[in-house]
Amino acid sequence: MLQNLEPLAREARSWPFEQARNLLAHVLKKRLSEAELNAARLLIDAGKADEALATFEALQRPVILETGYGPSGLPHMGTFGEVARTTMVRNAFRALTGDHWPTRLIAFSDDMDGLRKVPDGVPNPEMLREDLHLPLTKVRDPFGTHDSFGAHNNARLRAFLDSFGFDYEFMSSTEQYRSGRFDAVLLRMLERYDAVMAIMLPTLGEERRATYSPFLPISPVTGHVLQVPTLERNVEAGTIVFDDPAGGRTEVPVTGGHVKLQWKPDWAMRWTALDIDYEMSGKDLIESVRESSKVCRALGGTPPEGFNYELFLDIEGKKISKSKGNGLTMDEWLRYGTPESLSWYMFQSPKSAKSLHFNVIPRAIDDYLSFIDQYQAQEPAKQIDNAVWSIHAGDPPKVASPVSFSLLLNLVGVANASTRDQLWAYFAKYLPDATPENEPTLDRLMGHALNYYEDFVKPSKTYRAPTEQERAAFEDLAARLKALPADTTDGEVIQGEVYAVGKAHDFQPLRAWFGALYEVLLGASQGPRFGSFAAIYGLPQTIELIEKGARGELAG
């Protein structure tokens, strides 16, 4: 599915392909001499990436992309968004290189970090308070389901990523430190300690500079991650000496999980040890990326390619924090919206700040459905830039849903439905051959609509009585619809009558007429295409609804 797309991928304008082209240029420059780079570039641009890999051994190593996760709080949308967006770049890179170049995506959890504060919204906060400063994989699980708080949050993240079918390798900081995977670069950092300090100290305040060390030893007595100065370094022995508040002067190896690094040096060490080629990060980390890149170079590594995305904001316009829990959780989005709609939201304008709260879900669902419909009629050059190409790795579904999510929300309200079976009953005439089995997307949307309506729409519905002009128009519309066959299911025919009434009663502008329909009949400021809604709800039931609205009974 991702092969033979090189010409289209080279010209694609959407951001995943821009990033893929940057990544390709970065890897070629990182691994090849200038002469080799030019030769490899000619082959790849000619659609012969397989020949380039066969010719240059340095290109045969996988291209490695990384995402990071700090499990001090429950996984949130930003965490998922980073994996989803990085996967989009990965798939664009695969298309750009004819899917000949192996790639890996590492989801890295910084679970050896010390617990600095008790996150909001978590059970048993007193227990967590007792475990402050322990590595997250040593902090007891307040939920009581895993060996540690870090393990619990890691499991939550992995379960969600797995539910989306992401192809990734989970990597635990604790396991990597303890296994010795990082030992060689940790020893190199000990050797180049002065160079690292020369990079980091100018970024710190005067008080912090006096005690700063890139190494955070784990106390042999308390198990705490200690923020203490390094008093002595023994490069040959691979050890540091520090003053342990619980045990006095102490010497530990920098290898084998006896220390972890401050997070900026840790990031740089990880890039070097794992040979990371690509990692994106939030706009708030621009300075951190710059400093970590300097440390990476001091360690003999090459900083990865990447870009800085804008942050999500809560309903009050504040930055979403995993510790405060002030954003949507992944479970909450999936209660009210489809996984595909979440991926759609992540695709859109990653360099623009966007609100992330419940109100955005219905629009995200309907926008996704609309672009699925558009995809089938587009030429290949347009298809590859369509968001659904990136969401589905070049293989989006052929059909989406026969009706919009907004229509379903209004149908739930007007029909007073509480189950999917009740909603399916309304589709018996409109879509007589449709079943949950052959319209699985519609069936899923029904479940989401029932949940969303009950929790958000129903409590905020406000009906109003019609004006005299509107009342006359409603009565006219009811009369016109009564003249149609009672079993009419053609939404365009019904919509034509709705338009005709609005014009006949001189609504200026015409959208004021549709606003009246929504506000008087549906208790909302906006709604679905009324003809399609009436076709599904049923003509007799729609006429009855209009007559009640004309009499002002719905506003009572």
Structure description:
By secondary structure, the protein is mostly helical. Helix content is 51%, strand content 8%. It has 26 helices and twelve strands. The strands form five sheets. The chain has a three-stranded parallel beta sheet. Strand 6 (239-244) and strand 7 (248-253) form a beta hairpin. The two termini are 57 Å apart.
* Low-confidence spans: none
User: What would you report as the Rg, rounded to the nearest angstrom?
Assistant: 29 Å
Question: Proportion of β residues?
Answer: 5-15%
Oligomeric status? single chain
Fraction of residues in helix: 40-55%
State the strand order across the main sheet: 1-2-3
The number of helical runs is 26
Count of individual beta strands: 12
What is the approximate shape?
Answer: elongated
Span between termini: 57 Å
**Class by SSE composition:** mainly alpha
Mean pLDDT: 94
Task: Outline the secondary-structure elements.
Layout: H1 6-11, H2 15-31, H3 34-45, H4 49-55, E1 63-69, H5 77-96, E2 103-109, H6 125-130, H7 149-163, E3 169-172, H8 173-179, H9 183-191, H10 193-200, H11 206-211, E4 215-217, E5 232-234, E6 239-244, E7 248-253, E8 259-261, H12 263-274, E9 281-282, H13 286-298, E10 308-309, E11 312-313, H14 330-336, H15 339-347, E12 354-355, H16 361-375, H17 380-383, H18 387-391, H19 405-415, H20 420-430, H21 440-460, H22 468-482, H23 491-504, H24 511-522, H25 530-537, H26 539-551
Parallel strand pairs: 1-2, 2-3, 9-10, 11-12
Antiparallel strand pairs: 4-8, 5-6, 6-7
